[in-house]
Specification:
The chain has 420 residues and is of the alpha/beta class. The protein folds into 3 domains: 153 residues, Rossmann fold (3-Layer(aba) Sandwich); 71 residues, Helicase, Ruva Protein, domain 3, CATH 1.10.8; 123 residues, Coagulation Factor XIII, Chain A, domain 1 (Distorted Sandwich), CATH 2.70.50. It is 26% helix and 33% strand. A 6-stranded mixed β-sheet has the order 5-6-7-3-8-9, sandwiched between helices. A 5-stranded mixed β-sheet has the order 11-19-18-14-15. Helix 9 runs antiparallel to helix 10. The protein is globular and about 65 Å long.
Length: 420
Amino acid sequence: MSATANELELRTNAVPARRRAAISGRQLSKTFRLPHEQAHTLKERALHPIRSRRFDSLRAVAGLTMEIAEGEFFGIVGRNGSGKSTLLKCIAGIYELDGGQLEVNGRLSPFIELGVGFNAELTARDNVVINAIMLGLSRKQALERFDAIVQFAELEEFMELRLKNYSSGMMVRLAFAVAIQVDADILLIDEVLAVGDASFQHKCFSEFTRLKQAGKTIVFVTHDMGSVERFCDRAMLMERGRMVKVGEPAAIARLYNEVNFRQMRREAAQLGGPETLTGALVAELRTARFENPNGEPQFETLQAEPNCVSLEVYFHAEAIDPIFAIALQNERGATAFAASTQLTHGPTGRFRAGSTATVRIRFDNWLAPGCYRLMASVAREGARVDPYDVRQDVASIIIHPGRPGGGAVDLPHAFEIDRA
């Protein structure tokens, strides 16, 4: 019997022979049945017994084979609906697989639905102890680790407050602080850090590093390619429930952006109009990242420190005066900074087919503390929007406060006081 492409991919990117597999899955499948019409009452079900039996099938995970080594930080990426979260829930045992063989060697701690089991009517103090016990700690262990949990969450003043009065951000902080205290060998993390300020995100990322150094196996589902390149040993790209490729994080991040860009081109072609992406592939954004003054990848920095965004663009065809642009979006999705060669640089020149351009945008960083995501683009010269390539959330950076501030930006300034 000939090997499938999925199995050949697995052999090429299998875990090192000297390391045991923490998670091993072969031909994993999960299908959901979606009813055409739902009966909401017993009367509806009795009157229309056949109508409610018609279903569509959604194959969320389709014959996927994968292997993750003990102590590996493994990323799973893909567009919305690609099946990555479903796969994680199948590994966690939340969903039952329809087919395939799954082997997990070690104790699991899922960071998927943080705060499940919290009781809104109880105080945070009571919820910490109850949730820790639900996650596998004894009551004695939960009480012994209570102070560490509260300190990590930075919620000392709110422990006697009922959970129904907590904000969503406070809830995530508390749930995450409890979850990391569980003595698990394997951690399953599904984009749980989307809520929380930059300081807390930095603390969580530091905790990831500590857990990795402690030999824990971490499976990380995310849309943030910067985090994938920063933390992961390997990564896997999923599309329509299948594995597209598994390999080195930077290569998978590039492939993820290519898949997104192809989808954007298809959608734009269907919509038409003046903002349609050009039909032929002229220029391609290969990499986009934040750099420090030495040209090394940068994931966090201080206010007022010099900063740089570096783009690598490959030209498949000749381009005259292409426009290079970036934008930084804050945690609320607002554009905090944008720059374009069309506005501040002028004509960029001629780029022949087969050539590569490295574009660096240097700026003094006066942005407010927070997490910022990078959007980059290269477009045809002209007045209308006609991009060759656009990449959303291609990298991210956390900015730490350099001094007390409070505004959206911390512009350099000086006071003058005249006395009459």
